[in-house]
């Protein structure tokens, strides 16, 4: 496949691996955080870690939209789904994330709640049009990549004057999360592999501030394995040279300013929340988006007066520490025993982009030897 | 083909009519549906006897029996429909024992309001598939459920067949050192279905690979009677099937990604949706495991059959206490090809 195979060339990978081995200094360690779950997935799926020298440690960050949603928000969605006359629509992976008492939307569906898996926000709009006697709620999650489609759905609903459609917004912001991790100083991160799809929307400019503030090199990379390896090489070079700049490996899709049209639509519909709870990161100021007053008619939190209650993770679950880059999946006592992809305790085991699911799916043979 | 009896005042309205509760009530309307639609389409000497069962002589030997329920959405898809699929699926389940399929049964659960024209189309497709395969549908059943209690039509088919002497094929017979072969490109059916799923339609020329594989199996068994394992990788795709066999046989497997036959269109569609073709369903492909020294003869026999032209050696069985299926990636790394968890879902972002 053109534009895909070029980024999965085994020979090029070997050459890049040799370059990284040559340039990585043996007298120091490199802790590199890939923020995005897409990168985590690529690293495991293609065995990238196995091609790197031992002193390059990839730290899996919080960039999986399913993983970072706190239990309280999942509980709210489940509660909403059980209300009479409500159809709750959401993306597939969200269905399996356990809330309190390990009840998930999938279990709620089996219990009689009307929960629909959708592939895009437009599907939720269509369901609302087809079910005028029901309240259709789109359980919206995700980073800057999935926010513009949600904004479009709300704008379209407003244009159509659709009275039975609303959005339960859980959209969150990448730079705020990266800052929270850097600010905590818990994880030993020397450089960041910057998000791919998120950066196509927000551009590379937002990372400049914390590259400067934390003296942290950032290389924005695509999701193909060679993209990731090239970014690792670029980070190693920056670190060796004492630089801390934002570089763009993914220049075929990302510009400095990003997608201005998408940003404008998001700004029209959403505004910053003062604070938002993340799984792992706790309450992070200015890190989430809520629907503006102008579109309050489409805000499910207001329409259904959804209360929010913070809920602690399962005591044995280490998702929080894993999301912060402090622990690895194998440090969790329930990993692969009580907690498996078929029966997840924590969110990191649910999404294919979660660190635990990636470890379980692609990495456990290596660890078992 | 027999002509329908003329004992009914009006013939079934196969153009504009709908299934209603009387079609499952056991009364005259049901008899008419059976006679004018099912018997006419499936016509054979066993059905013509109009008994509640089919009675036939069985040849001596080991008999196999398989049953499969079909709940496909949408009912019609590029390259096939639930009708031919329900015939092919059960023939293949029987054939995967190395058996010669002999007879099929078909049971229909119809939803009130289902258009008779669609039902006729499905039944005709089943009849064609059965005729082409030379495996008659000799008995059946029809039930009707109320509107909104079904999904249009569900079909359960059961098949019986006879295993030739000297053939012993089973999922627990894979041995370290054995060769793993697939009969052709993988993932076609799953992508064809996805391409016409409501809310997910995308332009592609991919057709379902639905096909009856017993002819191919007969050629394979003739060439290499000592085949160890045969299985058709349907739901869950090749990856899930290999994991099943690995666990059943207590072995591991090592695949080579560069050897896997996957259509470019299937790879592209899966790439676009964030899916893996190894987990995408197939309905006309088989995976076979045999001794390494038999692999060339088997591949040659397979490639001379139309349904095995793209047969490829994709890996080998290895010793592994964990029973992992692994793959050497085209990228030079190695990874586990795990069981499918839940359903494969398109990525969020």
TrEMBL record, chain A:
The keyword Iron applies. Gene3D superfamilies: 6.10.20.100, HypD, alpha/beta domain 2 (3.40.50.11740). Pfam families: HypD (PF01924). The keyword Protein transport does not apply. InterPro entries: Hyd_form_HypD, HypD_1, HypD_2_sf. GO terms for molecular function: 4 iron, 4 sulfur cluster binding; carbon monoxide binding; iron ion binding. Keywords: Iron, Metal-binding. GO terms for biological process: protein maturation. PANTHER family: HYDROGENASE MATURATION FACTOR HYPD, HYDROGENASE PROTEIN ASSEMBLY PROTEIN HYPD. Belongs to the HypD family. This is Hydrogenase maturation factor. The lineage of its organism: Bacteria, Pseudomonadati, Pseudomonadota, Betaproteobacteria, Nitrosomonadales.
From TrEMBL, chain B:
GO terms for biological process: protein maturation. Residues 175-327 form the PurM-like C-terminal domain. Residues 52-163 form the PurM-like N-terminal domain. InterPro entries: HypE, PurM-like_C_dom, PurM-like_C_sf, PurM-like_N, PurM-like_N_sf. Pfam families: AIRS, AIRS_C. It comes from the Bacteria. Belongs to the HypE family. This is Carbamoyl phosphate phosphatase, hydrogenase 3 maturation protein. It comes from Sulfuricella denitrificans (strain DSM 22764 / NBRC 105220 / skB26).
């Amino acid at each position: 496949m053109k534009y895909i195979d070029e980024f999965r060339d085994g020979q090029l990978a070997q050459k890049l691996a040799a370059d990284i081995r040559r340039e990585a200094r043996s007298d120091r360690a490199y802790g590199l955080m890939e923020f995005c779950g897409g990168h985590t997935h690529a690293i495991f799926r293609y065995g990238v870690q196995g091609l790197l020298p031992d002193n390059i440690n990839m730290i899996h960050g919080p960039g999986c939209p399913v993983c970072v949603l706190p239990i309280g928000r999942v509980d709210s969605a489940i509660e909403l789904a059980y209300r009479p006359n409500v159809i709750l629509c959401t993306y597939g992976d969200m269905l399996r994330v356990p809330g309190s008492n390990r009840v998930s939307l999938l279990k709620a569906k089996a219990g009689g709640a009307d929960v629909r898996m959708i592939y895009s926000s437009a599907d939720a709009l269509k369901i609302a049009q087809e079910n005028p006697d029901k309240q259709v709620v789109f359980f919206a999650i995700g980073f800057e990549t999935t926010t513009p489609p949600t904004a479009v759905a709300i704008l379209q609903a407003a244009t159509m004057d659709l009275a039975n459609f609303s959005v339960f917004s859980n959209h969150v912001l990448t730079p705020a999360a990266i800052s929270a991790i850097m600010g905590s100083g818990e994880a030993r991160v020397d450089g960041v592999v910057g998000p791919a799809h998120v950066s196509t929307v927000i551009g590379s400019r937002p990372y400049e501030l914390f590259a400067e503030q934390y003296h942290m090199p950032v290389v924005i990379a695509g999701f193909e394995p060679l993209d990731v390896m090239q970014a690792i090489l670029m980070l190693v070079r920056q670190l060796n040279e004492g630089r801390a700049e934002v570089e763009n490996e993914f220049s075929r899709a990302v510009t400095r300013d990003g997608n201005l049209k998408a940003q404008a639509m998001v700004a029209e519909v959403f505004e910053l929340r003062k604070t938002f709870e993340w799984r792992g990161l706790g309450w992070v100021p200015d890190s989430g988006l809520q629907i503006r007053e102008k579109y309050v008619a489409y805000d499910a939190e207001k329409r259904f007066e959804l209360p929010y209650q913070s809920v602690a993770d399962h005591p044995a679950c280490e998702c929080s520490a894993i999301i912060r880059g402090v622990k690895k999946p194998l440090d969790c006592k329930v990993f692969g025993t009580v907690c498996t992809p078929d029966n997840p305790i924590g969110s990191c085991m649910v999404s294919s982009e979660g660190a635990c699911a990636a470890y379980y799916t692609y990495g456990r043979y290596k660890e078992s030897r | 083909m027999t002509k329908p009896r003329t004992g009914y005042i009006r013939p079934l309205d196969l153009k504009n009519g709908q299934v209603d509760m009387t079609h499952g009530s056991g009364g005259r309307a049901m008899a008419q549906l059976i006679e004018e639609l099912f018997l006419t389409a499936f016509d054979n000497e066993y059905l013509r006897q109009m008994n509640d069962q089919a009675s036939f002589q069985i040849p001596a030997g080991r008999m196999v029996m398989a049953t499969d329920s079909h709940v496909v959405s949408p009912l019609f898809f590029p390259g096939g429909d639930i009708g031919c699929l329900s015939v092919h699926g059960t023939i293949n389940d029987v054939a995967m024992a190395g058996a010669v399929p002999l007879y099929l049964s078909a049971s229909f659960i119809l939803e009130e309001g289902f258009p008779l024209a669609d039902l006729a189309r499905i039944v005709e497709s089943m009849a064609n598939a059965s005729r082409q395969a030379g495996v008659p549908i000799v008995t059946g059943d029809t039930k009707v459920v109320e509107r909104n209690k079904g999904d249009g039509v569900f079909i359960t088919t059961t098949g019986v067949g006879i295993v030739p002497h000297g053939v012993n094929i089973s999922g627990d017979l894979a041995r370290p050192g054995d060769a793993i072969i697939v009969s052709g490109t993988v993932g076609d059916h799953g992508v064809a279905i996805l391409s016409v799923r409501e809310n997910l339609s995308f332009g592609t020329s991919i057709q379902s690979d639905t096909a009856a594989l017993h002819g191919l199996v007969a050629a394979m068994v003739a060439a290499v009677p000592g085949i160890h394992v045969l299985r058709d990788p349907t739901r869950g795709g090749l990856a899930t099937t290999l994991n099943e066999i690995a666990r059943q046989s207590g072995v591991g497997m090592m695949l080579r990604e560069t050897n896997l036959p996957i259509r470019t269109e299937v790879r592209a569609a899966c790439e676009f949706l964030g899916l893996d073709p190894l987990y995408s369903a197939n309905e006309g492909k088989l995976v076979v495991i045999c001794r390494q020294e038999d692999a060339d003869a088997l591949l040659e026999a397979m490639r001379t059959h139309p349904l095995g032209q793209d047969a490829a050696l994709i890996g080998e069985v290895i010793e592994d206490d964990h029973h992992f299926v692994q793959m050497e990636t085209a990228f030079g790394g190695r990874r586990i090809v795990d069981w499918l968890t839940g359903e494969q879902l398109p990525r969020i972002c």
